[in-house]
Amino acid sequence: xxxxxxxxxxxxxxxxxxxxxxxxxxxxxxxxxxxxxxxxxxxxxxxxxxxxxxxxxxxxxxxxxxxxxxxxxxxxxxxxxxxxxxxxxxxxxxxxxxxxxxxxxxxxxxxxxxxxxxxxxxxxxxxxxxxxxxxxxxxxxxxxxxxxxxxxxxxxxxxxxxxxxxxxxxxxxxxxxxxxxxxxx
Length: 185
Prior knowledge:
Elements: E1 2-7, H1 11-20, E2 23-27, H2 30-45, E3 53-56, H3 68-72, H4 80-94, H5 110-123, E4 128-131, H6 140-156, E5 160-165, H7 168-171, E6 178-184
Parallel strand pairs: 1-6, 2-5, 2-6, 3-4, 4-5
Helix pairs in contact: 4-5
């Protein structure tokens, strides 16, 4: 489904995207992309009572004074005795080796950071995952791995994913369910 909306998205449009539980791409000009992304952060903050929202960014989002493992469980209600099994399950699910837990935050690759953020949002049961324009920093192989993974998350874990990008190839990928072309009002 392709449609056009006035930029930026309204709270009602955000709720509709969440209810569909699909991967939706918001295709925008580079000049509008970051402004609308940060506007959406503000909009979803006011929806926090209704929706659990996670944001995937290319830069570090982990607390530097916590281990990677401890960062992953921020916002999670998992009991201590469940944590090891949950990590193993989700690491397998996203294709990460547990060796990444032994790395320092600054040693993580962009792709590892993205996958770790996905694990964190699965552990904390987010309803909506909003992804900033991360694809320009990934190799072709990493994009080919990430897009099917995102689709699996929407189908198997019943999550909605909203991707901000100006990359038409990403938007027209067979893994994307909806394309929203944004026009500035």
